[in-house]
Amino acid sequence: MWMICKKEWQQFFGSLTGYLAIIVFLLLNGLLLFVFPDYNLLDFGYASLGSFFNLAPFILLFLVPTVTMRSLSDEYKSGTFEILKTLPLKPFDIVVGKFFGALLIVAAALVPTIIYAVSLQQLSSVGGIDVGATIGSYIGLILLGAVYTAVGICASSFTNNTVVAFIAGAFVCFILYSGFDAVSKLPLFKTGLDYYIEMLGINFHYRSISRGVVELRDVIYFLGLISLLLLITKRNLVKR
């Protein structure tokens, strides 16, 4: 499993595309949070990373599918999947190895963003940032990134076309994050069902953890969704 994980890491950073994806992610975050007026953290008058944690899920919609689009589709296209099948690995080992390899890349992209929190803490004259809420938000962001990664690998397992895998992964991630919120706001569901429909979406549980309170139901939701997606991916591999 760890051999697959290492291969995924080396494959992503073995080309200029991998470095460019990380650089663009960090550059876009930096511009939005410290340059553009609508989201500039320095204009708020108080130390908060709220804008970053609100924007990050949408920026990750493009970063994560970029990381995962080649995970399995490239193996199908190049024929190396046949070699993978000859290794003493179970299909689920391959899936989990691919998942953790891609998740490590996503985590590596998020680690430099900690400098935003450190900068605000140093610039704040009174109080500083809410450390508990910030830690909770980072936990939520990692879990969110894990779900996006599972979605991306699952999408990649359906096709040998990396572009299709990217578009499908980004679309499904967007629906899981924002789709249920949008449906819950329809007048048809204003009778009390709106709350339960909203609970089906990622955003509801991400916001809950971002408040600094890590509840068991939110963790179970994320882990359950990841497990379901990885099981679907494993089923696709077995079929092939």
Distance between the termini: 19 Å
N-to-C series of helices and strands: HHHHHHHHHHHH
On the 0-100 scale, what is the average pLDDT? 84
Low-pLDDT regions? none
Q: How many DSSP-defined strands?
A: 0
Main sheet characteristics: none
Tell me the structural class.
mainly alpha
- The figure for the number of domains is 1
- Beta percentage is under 5%
Overall geometry comes to: globular
**Range of helix content:** over 70%
Alpha carbon gyration radius? 19 Å
Organism: Parasediminibacterium paludis
Domain ABC-2 type transporter transmembrane: 51-177
Subcellular location: Cell membrane
Keywords: Cell membrane, Membrane, Transmembrane, Transmembrane helix
